[in-house]
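Protein in question kept in full:
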Amino acid sequence: MPGLYFDEFEVGQQFDHPIRRTVTETDNLLFTTMTHNPAAIHLDAEYCKNTEFGQILVNSMFTLALTVGISVGDTTLGTTVANLGFSSVVFPNPVFLGDTLRVLTQVKELRESRSDDSLGIVTFEHKAFNQHDQAVVICTRAALMHKRKPEA
């Protein structure tokens, strides 16, 4: 399903994304090493046994990327110009190997582009939850979006 155009969004609109994803050891290992993050908390099971978590902690940047990625198909696939940035990102609970995440998105704000009348900015709030319904990431993201082209 393609994403929506700027003029198809409404403030308050919510998306309960149907894709759920179980985080694997391979996900965490590849993402952590590809991004050159050598933190033992993400890679060393023996080290992690003596931490407050007692086990490997999934890289929070993977959690953020997965959360936004899950939202794309329902919101911005093929209709976005650029991701403009994040004004807020919090990780209220950790993600562990084997956790299954689901994502909710809400449209928080719509603004016409000041420089191009064929574009608009959508501000999304994305929330990911684990299988225990604990929030694991909450972020606010602005995306530059195409408007639907008027029919000739």
